[in-house]
Task: inverse folding
């Protein structure tokens, strides 16, 4: 959709100021003045053109990391290079060459969609001759051409998000940061945003996306890092991470107490119903079985449980969620009530697992 | 800064264009919020009407008949406008912080100084426009600017000079509280009582001793006295008896001196606070 000359961003002109990496960080630490270690030694190497996902629960350090990369926070330790520029000595050059879409939607409510984009063009110093064309192009891209001259105040959440996204793209940055861009959006609005992000990535833009949703990362990203408590705990493609989980998950709700749950878990482990060695997790209301053939062998397990006199009140087969990935990687569930990062991430009121599961059967 | 050899296309920002961008942004903001603009003008106008009607006769006697109460009051109303508009500066900043637009502008390559300068200039334009309206209205009501058109321009200059310290104060409160309500309350709480315990509405000499003491240390006294001295073209300062400069300058020199000093002190605090808030230092 961008017919502009992206190659001018992509090529090294002198071979030294810019490598082939959009982002390179080494041992980044960010400690707030109250002692909170929000980021603890994050090292990233993100090649140009990649759609990179940064996955983690609320308060894991995603927003702090992204703010550090976008020059809003200075790292307490470690080095950061973005588009070949050092975050400490050349922040302005980084600001010129990145787009940043914050977690909280921010548009100027008093201005129309077009005026917001014009303000962004002015702020990023888009050459005067290019402005009008660029604005029309972006209004089309985010489907706001019809309401271009209406004040943003009256826009829906989804429309504001799209305008917000467009404002981050006016200067055609070779690298765009998207901090939980779809949190709080309905599925339709979310899918629409996904299309835009894929379109600009296809045009060569590097994208750094943070998300709580495995499904989103799975759909969009070439590569992921999973962050927990300020540290990267896993890296790889979405497929790699799912393999870590080792299949689909069969959740079984049981009527009886912990004794029945333990017996049910034993049946899964010992009866050999599943061809692989399934992981069994005893949950609050039953058990969760992770296996490559959870779908095929599930009914057999239900029969076996009935034969053992264990009453089943519900069951569900689903794709792995972020919570399952965490369980597989760390052996711990995501805590829903992790404290927010100071001044950074907002609680969404939504548990990551629940939100990820709604699209889990895709 | 620009270099053709850099891989990333250099933007065409200059300091002046950054100032202009933000200046226009806040102008649009004001125009699109006519209610805010009108109500910030309405309160001083109501004061002007009510005070001249209610206190006019009594106050006229306290003024020993040399000038009308309208003439006496207009400088106070002008200072009140400067206070109200200046206090909206911090409110706008908090609005921006709460809506995330503040952070959005910080991540652009615009100069930080230009972001605040553009916003401040827009507020000063609002102050000037509103003062012109009130001066015209005051003259219609019978107030007299004894120093003429030059005096009117000088009064506007005094109002701008006066507004700066409160504008800075308002931004400091905004950044300290980062809360809209607190910023509004802090501004209002200070504004009205300070107006009353100054030379704004009645001669200080007619007030109890303790108020005379408070008025001496009240910045509003100096803003009002400077504007009033120009308005009536005479030495009107009561809190200090300065005789060194002759005539109107016995008021203007000390009053403007105090205002400049206040502007410098509060301006420095604001610059420090803003620099801290816009820096990338982890807090």
Result:
């Amino acid at each position: 959709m961008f017919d502009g000359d992206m190659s001018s961003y992509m090529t090294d002109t002198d071979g030294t100021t810019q490598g082939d990496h959009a982002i390179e960080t080494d041992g980044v630490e960010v400690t707030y003045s109250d002692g909170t270690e929000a980021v603890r030694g994050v090292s990233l190497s993100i090649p140009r053109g990649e759609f990179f996902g940064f996955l983690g629960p609320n308060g894991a350090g995603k927003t702090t990391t992204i703010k550090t990369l976008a020059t809003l926070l200075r790292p307490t330790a470690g080095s950061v290079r973005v588009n070949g520029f050092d975050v400490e000595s050349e922040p302005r050059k980084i600001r010129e060459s990145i787009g940043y879409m914050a977690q909280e939607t921010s548009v100027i409510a008093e201005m129309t969609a077009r005026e917001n984009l014009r303000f962004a063009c002015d702020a990023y110093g888009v050459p005067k001759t290019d402005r009008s064309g660029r604005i029309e192009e972006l209004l089309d891209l985010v489907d706001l051409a019809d309401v271009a001259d209406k004040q943003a105040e009256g826009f829906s959440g989804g429309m504001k998000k799209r305008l917000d996204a467009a404002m981050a793209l006016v200067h055609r940055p070779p690298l765009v940061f998207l901090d939980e861009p779809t949190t709080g959006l309905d599925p339709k609005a979310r899918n629409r945003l996904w299309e835009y992000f894929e379109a600009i990535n296809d045009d060569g833009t590097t994208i750094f996306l943070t998300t709580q949703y495995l499904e989103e990362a799975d759909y969009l990203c070439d590569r992921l890092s999973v962050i927990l408590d300020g540290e990267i705990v896993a890296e790889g493609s979405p497929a790699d991470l799912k393999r870590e989980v080792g299949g689909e998950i069969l959740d079984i709700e049981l009527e009886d107490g912990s004794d029945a749950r333990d017996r049910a878990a034993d049946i899964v482990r010992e009866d050999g119903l599943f061809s692989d060695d399934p992981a069994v997790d005893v949950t609050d209301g039953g058990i969760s079985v992770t296996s490559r053939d959870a779908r095929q062998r599930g009914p057999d397990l239900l029969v076996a449980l009935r034969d053992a006199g264990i009453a089943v009140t519900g069951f569900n087969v689903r794709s792995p969620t972020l919570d399952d990935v965490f369980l597989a990687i760390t052996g711990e569930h995501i805590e829903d009530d992790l404290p927010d990062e100071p001044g950074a991430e907002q609680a969404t009121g939504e548990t990551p697992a629940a939100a990820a599961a709604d699209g889990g059967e895709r | 800064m620009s270099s053709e050899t850099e891989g990333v296309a250099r933007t065409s920002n200059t300091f002046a264009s950054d100032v202009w961008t933000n200046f226009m942004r806040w102008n649009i903001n004001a125009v699109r919020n006519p209610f805010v603009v009108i109500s910030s003008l309405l309160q001083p106008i109501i004061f002007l009407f009510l005070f001249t009607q209610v206190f006019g006769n009594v106050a006229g006697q306290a003024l020993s008949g040399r000038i009308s109460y309208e003439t006496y009051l207009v400088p106070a109303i002008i200072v009140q406008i400067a206070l109200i508009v200046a206090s909206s500066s911090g409110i706008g900043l908090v609005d921006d912080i709460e809506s995330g637009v503040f952070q959005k502008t910080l991540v652009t390559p615009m100069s930080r100084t230009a972001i605040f300068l553009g916003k401040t200039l827009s507020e000063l334009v609002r102050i000037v426009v509103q003062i012109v309206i009130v001066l015209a209205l005051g003259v219609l009501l019978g107030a007299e600017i004894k120093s003429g058109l030059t005096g009117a321009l000088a009064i506007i200059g005094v109002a701008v000079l006066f507004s700066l310290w409160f504008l800075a104060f308002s931004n400091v409160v905004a950044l300290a509280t980062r809360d809209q309500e607190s910023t509004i309350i802090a501004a209002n709480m200070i504004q009205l009582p300070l107006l009353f315990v100054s030379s704004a509405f009645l001669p200080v000499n007619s007030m109890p001793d303790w108020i005379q003491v408070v008025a001496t240390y009240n910045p509003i006294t100096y803003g009002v006295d400077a504007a009033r001295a120009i308005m009536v073209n005479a030495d009107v300062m009561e809190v200090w008896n300065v005789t060194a400069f002759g005539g109107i300058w016995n008021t203007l020199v000390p009053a403007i001196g105090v205002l400049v000093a206040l502007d410098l002190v509060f301006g420095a605090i604001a610059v420090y606070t803003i620099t801290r808030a816009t820096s990338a230092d982890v807090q």
